[in-house]
Amino acid sequence: MSASQPSRRRIVKPDAEWRAALTPEQYRVTREHGTERAFTGPFWDEKKPGLYRCVCCSEPLFDAGTKFDSGTGWPSFYAPVEADAVAAHEDRSWFMRRTEIRCAACDAHLGHVFTDGPPPTGLRYCMNGNALAFEPAAKKD
Predict the structure, then answer these.
(1) Alpha-carbon gap, residue 72 to 11, rounded angstroms
(2) 3-state secondary structure of 111
(3) pLDDT per position in the chain (141 positions), as tens?
(4) For residues 49 and 134, is the Cβ–Cβ distance under 8 A?
(5) For the domain bounded by 15-136, which CATH number is listed?
(6) Any residues with CB less than 8 A from the CB of 139 and at least 6 apart, and which?
(7) In whole angstroms, what separates CA 22 from the centre of its chain?
(8) How far is Cα 120 from Cα 87, in angstroms, rounded to an integer?
(9) CA–CA distance, 94 with 107 (Å, rounded to integer)
(10) Are 100 and 88 in contact (CB under 8 A)?
(11) pTM for the predicted model, two decimal places
(12) Which residues lie closer than 8 Å to 17 by C-beta, 6 or more apart?
């Protein structure tokens, strides 16, 4: 996978604004490219229908219909809501070569994508729960 160029509006804020708007863990994960420990972050076991948004800018990222249990302890999806909702970047940290996924709008670190996911894409977007905000689907009467 090569790095993708976002085509969405860009949201840029000073670091002080990000710090004020996010919890310390959300800031560490999204702005400092951190990773939460497996099975500790929110949403890894969430099963309700709804929409996952970027915790930093509220842009829609993943539909719960694409979420699956990867057994990894992180929320996993096989596709974003739209191809340009996320941006891929090469990550060579920790003596590995991976594809980092960021929010295309605000550049928040979300997690990584791997090629061991289920059909129809074969991809596993392994996201940090602290990088996401969950919006449950409206209940139908």
Answers:
(1) 31
(2) strand
(3) 444 444 567 888 999 999 999 999 999 999 999 999 999 999 999 999 999 999 999 999 999 999 999 999 999 999 999 999 999 987 766 666 778 999 999 999 999 999 999 999 999 999 999 999 999 998 876
(4) no
(5) 2.170.150.20
(6) none
(7) 15
(8) 20
(9) 21
(10) yes
(11) 0.88
(12) none
Out of 54, 57, 106, 126, the active site residue is 126
Tell me the β-bridge partners of 116.
none
Please report, as a single letter, which amino acid is at residue 92: R
Strands across the sheet with 132-136, in order?
Answer: 60-63, 50-54, 132-136
Give residue 98's Cα distance to chain centre. 15
Cα 133 to Cα 6: distance, rounded to the nearest angstrom: 21
Q: Are 86 and 110 in contact (CB under 8 A)?
A: yes
Q: Give the residue carrying structure tokens 């804020």.
A: 13
Cis peptide before 42 (omega within 30 of 0): no
54: annotated active-site residue: no
In contact, 87 and 6? CB cutoff 8 Å: yes
Asked whether the beta carbons of 85 and 60 are under 8 A apart, the reply is yes
